[in-house]
Structure formats: C-alpha cells, structure tokens
Amino acid sequence: MRTVRDVDVAGRRVLVRCDLNVPLKDGQVADDTRIRAAMPTIEHLLGAGAAAVVMCSHLGRPKGKPDPALSLKPVAGRVSELLGRPVAFGDQQGDLRLLENLRFDPREEANDPSLARELAALADIYVDDAFGAAHRAHASTVGVAELLPAVAGLLLAGELEAFDRLLDHPRHPFVVVIGGVKVADKIGVIDRFTELADTILIGGAMAFTFLAAQGLDVGASRKEDDDGQATARKAFEDASARGCELLLPVDVVAADRFDAAAETRTVAADAIPAGWMGLDIGPRTVELYGARIGPANTIFWNGPMGVFELEPFARGTIAVAEAVAGSEATSVVGGGDSVAAVNVAGVADRISHVSTGGGAALELLEGKVLPGVAALEGAPV
C-alpha cells in the first residue's frame, strides 16, 4: 500500500479523511488525542508543498442531519492551535480547510456516489488517514478512493504496521488484556488470541459472564444470558485446547448500587453479597494480572477492567495501565477507555503504540477485511 511519502503532492490539492471524532464538552474539545495523531500527515502535506489541504471527518452520530452539538467547528479551532496557522471551516475557502461533520449528510453513511463525487471534486489526490473509520464503507472512506489517486496517511500506515507486528511477529510471552461489557463484542478477538497468545486476562463486566459460566454466583453484577455464558464456556474450552491460559478475577470491588457514592466492599469473586454488583477488579486480581504482564514481551490491551468513568471503580484499570507501561514489552493499547486510562495514568508515552481505532482495531484483529483499507489497496495511484 502506498502512503503520502510515495506521491508528489507539490502544487496539488489533497483531500484527507481524518478521524477527528473526539469528545466535546461545553463546546470545546475535551480530549485531543485523535487530533494530535492526525497532525503528522497534515504537516507532511503542507511541508511537501500541497497547494491545498482539505480535511474531512465525522463526529458522533447525528443521524444524517445537522446537529450544532456535533459540529466540527471546535475541532477546527484546535487544529489551528496545533499547527499555528488559520484553518478555514465548512464552506469557507482557504489552503487549509476542515469540512463540516460528514455525517450531517445522509449520503455519507450510505456511501452515495453523488457525495463521493462532490468530495473528489475538491482535490487531485485522496489520503485516507482515518484508521478509526476504516471499518466503515462510507462515501469518504471508500467512494472517494474509487475516483482519485489514493494513498494511506502516516497514521493509518502506522496503525496497520503495529497490528501486523502484533499478529504476525509477536515475541513471547504474549499477554492479552481484554475488558468491556459483552462477551459477544469481544469473542472474535478472544478467539483469535487464544491461538496466538500465552495468556488472556479478562476484566470489565464481561468477566461476570465468564464467572457465571463457571457456575459462580455473581450477585447483581451485570452478566449475559445463557447464550452469552455458553459463548464464554466455549472460549474457555478453546483456550485450554490451544494451550492458552485464560484468567478471570479472583476478587472484585462490589457496590450496593451503580453510583460513585455507593457503599463498596472488596470481596472474593465468588462471594459477592446478594443484591450487590461487581464494578472493578480487586487488589488480588491486580497483583495476579500484574504478575503476568510484568515478564511479557508482547502485550495487547483493549477495554477497561471496571466502571472506569466512576472514580471508586477506576483503580483496577489504572493499575493495569501502570503495569503495561512498566513492562519492557512491545505494547499496543486500543479502545477509547483503555486509551483514556493510559492518558489519565500519565503513561501514554511509555506505551509502544496507542491506537486511535476502537471498532476498526477489533475487526482487524478478528481477521476481517476493513473496507477503507481494501479501497486503498485497489485504488488508482
């Protein structure tokens, strides 16, 4: 796959599909991680003499119509601050410009050829740098690539290289940490890693489905139905057959209700009081998981260990972030809450690769073809 380093952009107009889908608070960018990750490609294009750079992205789920709360205007302001130069926004003209939220137009998610043609008319070259949207076959990720010479941006190329190394050339011991809510959302990844990893550490709400599948009483903890538990049991069986160690929490932080002000108690995973719910991994589990993470040579982490957004139940996730950062392993962290955790813990600079993709990373790890990537592989250059 060719990248921006392989094409001459001097004097040419470039359309860049970025992933600027960032959280906003009170009309301001609350976390600029994805914006900063997009800047190397923009800086490269400007430095290489592009006549114009037109950035485009989605933000949130506006359902095909304008929503002022999901405007990319605050993002344009942050891009301007990072680059130290003006950024035209929306219909404004300028040699550096950010279009309004693509998903304000229903044709974007429909991969409508008419929108693809309108976007293509803005440029001579198309650059896809939106790894976080590469699993979507939309007008800005697939349609445009069929109409213009198309290459990967530096971020997208870097993401693909990092995951290629993770899947094809991991150094052992290889430890995978998986958290989140539903087993169904992660079972494809778990299944893939039972073939590749030495150890898989399970956290988050899905851990209670796994525990329940082992016949344990998990109180009022969130767990899936019989189908979800059957999936969890099969994952255990597959891991065992493939020689992969799959570990569950041995203790949890339980609460009498889902609330930051709830009464809490650290208990064994099989001794959650009736009516109480587990909301984080406990200190013994932190120690157990840390003992596997410490000597690892390769680590992949996706998903929080507890209800990370509530401070009393964030300690397990922060502890895992610190353990991953403290290891000498090649580490890849993906997923919004996991990335937030390494940022909150102040250890992002000690992670080998912090991925900007959530769903795209999971589908890539499952072995699925990402439409945005496939479009570049078959695009004119």
Question: In brief, what are we looking at here?
Answer:
The protein is an alpha/beta fold and 381 residues long. It has helices spanning 33-47, 73-83, 113-120, 139-143, 154-168, 183-196, 206-213, 226-241, 283-293, 315-326, 336-344, 359-365, 371-377; strands spanning 13-17, 24-25, 28-29, 52-56, 88-89, 96-98, 125-128, 150-152, 174-178, 199-202, 245-247, 251-255, 264-268, 277-281, 298-302, 330-334, 353-354.
Number-wise, the strands total 17
CATH-derived topology of the largest domain: Rossmann fold
Give the class-level CATH name of the largest domain: Alpha Beta
Total domain modules: 2
Helix count equals: 13
* Straight-line distance between termini: 10 Å
Structural class: alpha/beta
Helix content: 25-40%
How do the strands line up in the largest sheet? 5-6-4-1-7-8
The CATH H-level superfamily of the largest domain is Phosphoglycerate kinase, N-terminal domain
- Specify Rg, calculated over alpha carbons: 22 Å
Low-confidence runs: none
Element order, helices and strands?
EEEHEHEEHEHEHEHEHHEEEEHEHEHEHH
How would the global form be characterised?
elongated
Portion in beta strands: 15-25%
The main β sheet shows up as:
6 strands, parallel
Q: What is the overall pLDDT average? A: 94
What is the architecture of the largest domain at the second tier of CATH? 3-Layer(aba) Sandwich
